[in-house]
Amino acid sequence: MILIAIVLGTLAAGIGSVWLAALLSFGVLSRYTQHMLSLAAGALLATAFMHLLPEAFESQASAHDLFMTLLVGLVFFFLLDKAELWHHGHEHHHELPPEHAHAHAGPPHSHDHGPKAGTWAVLTGDSVHCFGDGVLIASAFVADMRLGVIASLAVLAHEVPHHMGDLMVLRTVSGTRRAALIKVSLAGAVTALGGLVGYWLVEQLQDYLPYFLVVASSSFVYVALADLIPQLQKRLSARETAAQIAWLLVGIGLVTWVSGLAHGR
What we know:
- The chain has helices at residues 2-26, 33-57, 63-92, 115-143, 145-174, 177-204, 209-232, 238-262.
- By secondary structure, it is mainly alpha-helical.
- The longest helix is centred in the N-terminal third of the chain and has 30 residues, at 63-92.
């Protein structure tokens, strides 16, 4: 049952995030991009601080060791982000202002590298990232079915802005929206492979489950604070600011609501 839930959760997060990103980039939802960023940030923070971390700290693991794991995790994801910048930053960052690094809604600027290099850089980075997401989702499902559902939704939410940037890059490289969508969807499907590997890994290392949960938390916290929220820090009207706050709270409320459903309340 857990394995089936992991497969379903990872496929929903990996491929669902790509299709939602396509709707926000190319479809009728494109006007709501900023709202989705706020919602994703709220969902990620709520998942980390209200569910994953409490679950980890309820174990017999040392609080000192768990906090150390959280710190190391944050530094690791910072370095991972730096590595991504080095490898294919021209697609996402170098030619774009910071607030549009991952979720720009317009076509990217010209690139120095050829189409093939750009395509493989984006798809390789996406696949590695999605594989890691799958491992984190599997860890959450093994700990508790409720956590697995919440983690899957959180991963779906935080991957949307990232996939939006990838789709826009690959659309320029491939020439068509359809080709870009197929390629990024295939990369998103790697999340399920990560889930299967994660299921085996966590089953073999049950004593380390609290640490897997803390690593998942550090991933969510880093993405929310270093990637999503900076994109929301703009000078806006009072109405737009209120909308940002409202959608942030919706993200927090959504995670709380899903948790309540999982408990049958």
